[in-house]
Amino acid sequence: MSGSRSDDRPDPKSVIQGMALLASGRSEGINRFRGTVNAFLAALAPGLAFNLVSFFVALLGKDTIAGLIRVELSLCAFLALPVISYAFTRRWDREDRWLRYATAAAWSQWTSVFVFVAVMAISTLALPSLAERPGFGHAVMFSSQLYDLWLGMFIARCGLEISRWRAVLLYGVTALFILACYGVASLLPPHHPFLSEILLGDFGGHAASST
């Protein structure tokens, strides 16, 4: 029984290998992830911890209400894909593949963050004049988001064994749901432009107001 519990635990080495393989477009990377409940919960842990820290930061900020709503929206966006993808896999008769896919997708969402940070760091060191140009950071962020979209659909195709169009449908519905959440939050009091933040990457203003 102890051996089965050990096999159920996520293997950090396999996770990193899987992320690297999937990031380079190699579908065999999906097999590096374990399709277990413990592995899936471990994949969610960093994102949940990030939102928990953001919650306490919002409590200490000046614009507490907007900060707490922002954390709530971030959590909704973080959990949207696992929930929506599970609903689709039930409809497509892919439930047996969902845990492994959801685990891989949860870990691999950090790949675009790493790419963004790496590109910005390299640009700042090697090409400081380019990095200091207005809009450069937004361009890099937009590019990393496009890469994240491609990676997510690629993981869905190889993890769930679905067609390209079904992967587009899955991520399209997820994106619309997230935009709808931010849109509704923008319309309700305190009428903060949450939607423009996520669309335009306008985080500088609210970061300053929350400190």
Radius of gyration (CA) equals 19 Å
Which structural class best describes the helix and strand composition?
A: mainly alpha
Task: Determine the number of helices (DSSP H or I, runs of at least 4 residues).
Answer: 10
By oligomeric state, this entry counts as single chain
Q: Main sheet?
A: none
List keywords for this structure.
211 residues, mainly alpha, 10 helices, globular, disordered N terminus, transmembrane, transmembrane helix, membrane
Notes on the structure:
Keywords: Membrane, Transmembrane, Transmembrane helix. The protein is an all-alpha fold. The chain is globular and about 45 Å long. The N terminus and C terminus are likely disordered.
Topology:
Elements: H1 2-8, H2 12-23, H3 37-60, H4 64-91, H5 95-126, H6 128-131, H7 136-160, H8 164-187, H9 194-200, H10 204-209
Keywords: Membrane, Transmembrane, Transmembrane helix
Task: Provide a brief overview of the structure.
By secondary structure, the protein is mainly α. The protein has one domain (about 1-210).
